[in-house]
Recover the amino acids of this structure.
């Protein structure tokens, strides 16, 4: 009974449990698997609508910028999530050292006067 | 406190390295205890990295292999609408696999290695995808039960302590809900169709019910890694807890479908306030995981074929990129 399918051809050729089935065919030799040039890693930034900045959406692999853009469109904007995409080679990004997080971001500490909330004497004054 | 930390790191490290390790561990422990997030370049225990790498890559493989049972039905979907929906869903699964491979890569594993492990049969993926989809109603049951169980499992993973994994899960969960609803709709339409169609829907639910419950993993007392994963805030709820929650949701939804769940032992335990289900065949689960399920070899073989048949496309793209770069260089 397969009202929507072709009754002559089961959707899957394995319709019953094959306990004796081999796990997988013999693995191809490692040297055969690694002859390809790996595609490089790109970071993807998407502007979700006009007026907003591009935000990091994720990463992907592609051989060049044109393909990276197309892949990014297919991967990160399947539901109208973006109006503009940037792709950046991951290796071109420099980042702060995670081990020195304390020291690197030390400067603003103890400088509460950079925030409006530091100034309390004007409380109650309108439009300030 | 510092001396205790030092004892747990290998002795061959220099004093400075030991100090850095100890500081890293202290920082890691603090982040976890504050229920904050670990990011790729942070120090993390080797076991944490390994656990995540195993879980995320298995998850990615499941999405990729999971395309097969449904792609199999695209050509015989009953209408153009259903065909379009199914294609969009299969495309989503590919996308989910790619989000997760990206997350796994941040832990220091190359994507090529993960791909190679999958087609060499060295990597695991969810046991559910080793069952065959033998009727159109299976597309409904897979969407409703299998994606439903996946959502139940995945929503808490959006808060996993590893940042890239949590972010990938947020994206995935947003997209999964369409998957479950379209499956529910397929079953609902069949259930309201001819008696033969309704029977087909019921048979599909009967086939996928137990395997979908087993997607939550072995019972808590037989799941040795769960405790550590929960301590690390990777997992938020135990396997049995999530399974019970899922059963409770299905009990209500199946009524709307006008179908029944093939489990006479379902009951709400008033004492524990939890849903209970009948016994599951955990031997079958282990058999399927060990590679002796109905479709294991077929699934891996198909993936290998697709990968090898796509080799010329990947090579051509690289050659084209190289040529374009040379042209630009010359200009």
């Amino acid at each position: 009974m397969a009202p929507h399918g072709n009754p002559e051809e089961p959707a899957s050729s394995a319709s019953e449990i094959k306990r004796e089935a081999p796990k997988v065919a013999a693995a191809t030799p490692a040297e055969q698997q690694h002859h390809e040039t790996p595609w490089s890693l790109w970071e993807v930034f998407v502007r979700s609508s006009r007026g907003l900045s591009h935000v990091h959406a994720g990463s992907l692999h592609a051989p060049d910028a044109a393909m990276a853009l197309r892949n990014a469109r297919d991967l990160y904007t399947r539901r109208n999530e973006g109006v503009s995409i940037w792709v950046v080679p991951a290796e071109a990004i420099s980042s702060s050292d995670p081990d020195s997080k304390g020291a690197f971001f030390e400067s603003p500490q103890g400088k509460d006067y950079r925030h409006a909330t530091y100034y309390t004497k004007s409380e109650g004054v309108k439009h300030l | 406190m510092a001396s205790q930390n030092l004892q747990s790191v290998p002795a061959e490290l220099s004093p400075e390295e030991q100090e850095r390790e100890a500081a890293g561990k202290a920082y890691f422990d603090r982040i976890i205890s504050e229920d904050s997030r670990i990011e790729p370049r942070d120090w993390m225990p080797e076991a944490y990295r390994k656990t995540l790498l195993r879980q995320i890559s298995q998850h990615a493989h499941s999405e990729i292999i999971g395309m097969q049972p449904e792609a199999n039905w695209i050509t015989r979907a009953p209408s153009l609408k259903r065909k379009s929906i199914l294609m969009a869903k299969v495309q989503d699964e590919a996308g989910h696999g790619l989000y997760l491979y990206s997350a796994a890569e941040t832990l220091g594993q190359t994507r090529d290695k993960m791909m190679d492990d999958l087609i060499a049969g060295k990597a695991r993926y969810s046991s559910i995808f080793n069952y065959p989809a033998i009727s159109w109603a299976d597309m409904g049951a897979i969407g409703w039960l299998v994606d439903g169980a996946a959502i139940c499992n995945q929503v808490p993973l959006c808060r996993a302590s590893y940042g890239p994994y949590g972010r990938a899960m947020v994206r995935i969960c947003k997209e999964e809900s369409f998957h479950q609803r379209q499956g529910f709709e397929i079953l609902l339409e069949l259930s309201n169709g001819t008696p033969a169609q309704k029977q087909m829907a019921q048979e599909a639910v009967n086939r996928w019910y137990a395997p979908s419950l087993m997607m939550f993993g072995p019972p808590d007392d037989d799941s040795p890694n769960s405790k550590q994963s929960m301590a690390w805030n990777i997992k938020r709820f135990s396997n049995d807890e999530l399974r019970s929650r899922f059963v409770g949701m299905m009990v209500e939804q199946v009524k709307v479908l006008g179908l029944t769940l093939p489990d006479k032992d379902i009951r709400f335990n008033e004492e524990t306030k939890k849903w209970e289900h009948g016994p599951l065949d955990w031997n079958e689960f282990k058999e399927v995981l060990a590679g002796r399920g109905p479709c294991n070899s077929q699934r891996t073989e198909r993936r290998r074929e697709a990968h090898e048949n796509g080799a010329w496309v990947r090579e051509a793209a690289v050659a084209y990129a190289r040529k374009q770069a040379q042209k630009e260089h010359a200009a």
User: Anything to note?
Assistant: DSSP finds three helices and three strands in chain A. Confidence is low (pLDDT under 50) at residues 1-33 of chain A. The radius of gyration of chain A is 28 Å.
